Protein: ROK family transcriptional regulator
Organism: Bacillus salipaludis
Amino acid sequence: MEKQDQLLMKKQNKNLVLEIIKNQSPISRMEIAKITGMSPTSITRIVNELHLQGFVKETELVTSGVGRKAVLLDVCDDVFFTIGVEIDKFIIKIGIVNYVGEIVELRRIPRLESESYFETLEKVNMNLKELIEKNRIPHQRIIGIGVGLPGFIDNQNGVVKVSDQLKWKNVNLAEDLKQLTAFEVMIDNELKMKIVAEDFKGSAKNSHHAVLVGIGSGIGSAMILNGEIYRGDSNNAGEIGHTVINPTGNVCNCGKIGCLATYISEGAIVGDARKVKEIDSILDVFEAYRNGESWAHNLMDRTTTYIALAVSNILCLYNPEMIILSGDTIERLPEIKQPIEQKCDLYIWEPLKERVKIVYSQLGEHGVVLGAAIQIQNLLLDLE
Amino acid sequence: MEKQDQLLMKKQNKNLVLEIIKNQSPISRMEIAKITGMSPTSITRIVNELHLQGFVKETELVTSGVGRKAVLLDVCDDVFFTIGVEIDKFIIKIGIVNYVGEIVELRRIPRLESESYFETLEKVNMNLKELIEKNRIPHQRIIGIGVGLPGFIDNQNGVVKVSDQLKWKNVNLAEDLKQLTAFEVMIDNELKMKIVAEDFKGSAKNSHHAVLVGIGSGIGSAMILNGEIYRGDSNNAGEIGHTVINPTGNVCNCGKIGCLATYISEGAIVGDARKVKEIDSILDVFEAYRNGESWAHNLMDRTTTYIALAVSNILCLYNPEMIILSGDTIERLPEIKQPIEQKCDLYIWEPLKERVKIVYSQLGEHGVVLGAAIQIQNLLLDLE
């Protein structure tokens, strides 16, 4: 066997052992040997290395049964940290996330629509430096920044191709933020980061095929297929907002007629609401709905119909185990969950109905920050 | 390193070497060593084993340049054969396919709509035995039968859950055909087999993300994502025929309103045509179209519009490198290719337009048979 192969296998084994300690701690060396099929000698060697590198610590515990003390292993959750950032039209969120995926602190900063690209970046930089200092985290323990934002994101090259919501086009966000902060930076579409978080500790945990739908100012989806984020050819997979669902319907700003987004996005609902009543924002529509005003019920009835049709279409095409509904509209007006579920029950194709689960996001507004932080950890933290 | 790991690596290396000879023959031992990074001694050992097992033969050729003779390697295309079978409403196709994916002989047998399940199976058995005998193929060289058919197929358990077209429900096709023929049998959805063939030697060759759309008596799609058939949770991924594309439109036999199939399937076109004129089959519609009858042009205009909308929706959701259009409707009325392409140009979302390729099936009516034969080879022929 070649030396190169041996090194690769050694590295894989080390990552495997660390993964097991991370997910199943506290755990004994003997149990790890059983799970992996590796020899106790190999396990002891690997654990010693991980201990020296600061990833693993020992915790002494009394085992149940005969009462003998056994040394168990646990990960050190402060060995490394990553920063998760969400940039949206009106808000920036920054979170410090530790090695086991817990948010140490999350900060919300308002963003102005008039704000320039570099003003936003400067805001991110200033706030994350303050956060790091406040939490007294040594710089060398921070391995990088993950950013989630709406739009067509070239994650490979760190370029925002187009973000209609932020009004950014062809900006080198990863490079620019790296220059400013001196940390490694990865950027990706916000919904893809959200499903990474749901996969890590939310609704999609242990799911092989899951689709997350985001319903708010923008309409989109992201998916885990065969256990991995599915991106398609240019990281655009999941653009459900621009699927045509009514070819004789509303005109969409993309130039097509009848796109889903023209029926269920916040902007579309507000636009139609203003044909009836002077309102400021979507919140006024929700208030009118709660007050029983019929026009608001008609509008939201159409919205829930199109959401359920979208769920049904996603199900036909991706045949996932679960569909996770998320986004501002559902979070702010949870009353629409019931009609959505009733309509899903009417529309979903019979042979698929019994198996699929329609659920809601568990991580709510933390999802993008957490997912982005986990994603950059996954990308950079491959042990040698 | 554990002994088990060594054995696994040995097996992987052997399969890798065979794969390289199969795809890049004629090729020298030295070139294989270069590509794999393995030592010339290892390559010689592996090639000797493959030679003994009958997979590989030597061909002596004069190399270009200095004129020295070099011994090159090639696969033996008759070392193993598989049988591909397509069962459709009115036709059964059976093909013998050799080790390198060439169809040795393909036979078409008419199927009656009134035919029972076991009558069809008996027909398959009788004809494939005749074919094998006629081509003098020793039984021990046939490793199995792959069957592609329309419907909801549980490929894991070899069960046809529902096939509306064949009127079969919950039949153990794999098991029953194995009993009858004494060969190993694998069954799968016809479009999934078709894209396996396109991936092997047709339009999708070298593509990582490709979607094949089938337009004929049924409407469906199949996809290769990240280089593999994507099945979803229960092998139903790609059911585009039942995606809703017009929620105030036609009633579908699935109980929903406005499914794509109600606009572009043969049955739907024929049903609407009969509102205008007494016709026998879809062929009469095509003839009227060629004769310039306006009703037929109106109908096919609507059909091409909905086909292009479906292409646009698939593109938004899967973001593939290519979409392969296939099926009877396009094969029998190729005149509609031009309007489909024109409408795709109007509907496809601008940022995706430049990269995606809209192409047609290259394997035509051989696709399902070839794909099923290749699939069973891939499943069973993993060397020890």
Remarks:
- Chain A has three domains: 3-75, 81-189+369-380, 203-361.
- Chain A touches chain B through 57 residues (CB under 8 Å).
